[in-house]
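Write out this protein's structure.
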Amino acid sequence: MTLTPAPFFTDIYTGPEGGAAYWVNTSDGVRIRVGYWPAKNAKGTVLLFPGRTEYIEKYALCAAALAKRGYATLAVDWRGQGLADRLLDDPMIGHVGKFSDYQRDVAALLDTAEKLDAPKPMHLIAHSLGGCVGLRALMNGLDVASAVFSGPMWGINIGPHLRATAWALGRLMPYIGQGHRLARRSLVRPYVLSEPFANNTLTTDETMFAMMRDHLRAHPELALAGPSFTWLRAALDETRSLASRPSPNVPCLTLLGTRERIVDVGRVHDRMAAWPNGRLDLVDGAEHEPLMEGPEITEPLFDQIAEHFQTSADQHTSGKSRAIG
């Protein structure tokens, strides 16, 4: 088995020893990038689904925290971001034709896990956009022992006075052949390079915010700005579709910062209130990215995640044994 090596930037934060990245082709011919960090005596592998604008290297410290607790990590650059194929002539605009295309990326990620012989059982950590993609994957039967969501994009926080406009333009612009254009009120530069640390919507930890800036300044090819009108339409359609379906019977822990301002908080509360074997934990003082806060917040969270993984894996194994018996 041969996987094609891909660029893997370790100059900002290295992550666990032995990390590597690979090029992977999806079923529709899009080239994406998959990153893998092993762990000694691994108890399983975390499938890490990043958010919109994100890239593998941003999760090096998360992978290190997971490796310390006995878990390997397999992360992905979704199509249209990171070093994966950009889908528009303007590479700074985030774009996807339809959200079901992300499931092709999930399938390619799972195929890579098999080729790498990544330790089982598998667990899911999905952030923001990744939470939307991950929920759909679970509904489609993604075989994981447990799931953890961080600030999941099960709805987008759009003010009531702008929601009707977003829906209208999300349909009109693609219809008239302008779906590739930057959505109204979207940033033309990456958020962390456009906005100051003070009152940013991602993290309260200045070191983590600086890391995000350092990555994009050192490797501008990772950068992404706002989404296209087509992406916006597809996101609104997908989140509405997901809201109409019951939660999957997978042990679930969802982390939501008490200062969350990006995703629709009400949708998260509604989903978790009806999730069998699910729990919503509000992370006091955290912004949109609880796992990118300071160590006083993240260390207890990763302990909690590891405990969730272990308990769920034990139940998963026990359930399979009963089924065989």
